[in-house]
Design a protein that fits this description.
The structure is a single chain. The chain is an alpha+beta fold and 84 residues long. It has a single domain, classed as 2-Layer Sandwich (GMP Synthetase, Chain A, domain 3). Helix content is 35%, strand content 23%. The chain has a three-stranded mixed sheet.
């Protein structure tokens, strides 16, 4: 399973989103300091889920970071998040 698939699976399991895009942007950061060079280190998440209704942007992002903790521990380097 690729990191993209794992991220998608974790977010679906945790938030049951109505809309979810998981975009691998790693190619834009090739050679970037801190990047592990795996091709699976930089991602953009676009997500819409009822659980985020009424939460601040900070609270929503914290929930997503918590859900993806295992991915950060295994080499996810950067994440851009857009909550719809």
């Amino acid at each position: 399973m690729t990191r993209t698939e794992r991220i998608r699976s974790l977010l679906v399991k945790t938030f049951s989103p109505k809309n979810l895009e998981v975009i691998n942007n790693s190619h834009e950061h090739a050679g970037h300091q801190g990047s592990p060079g795996t091709g699976e280190s930089h991602y953009t998440i676009v997500i819409k889920a009822q659980v985020f209704d009424g939460l601040s942007q900070v609270q929503s992002h914290q929930a997503i970071y918590q859900a993806l903790d295992s991915e950060f521990k295994s080499g996810l380097h950067a994440l851009s998040i857009k909550v719809l």
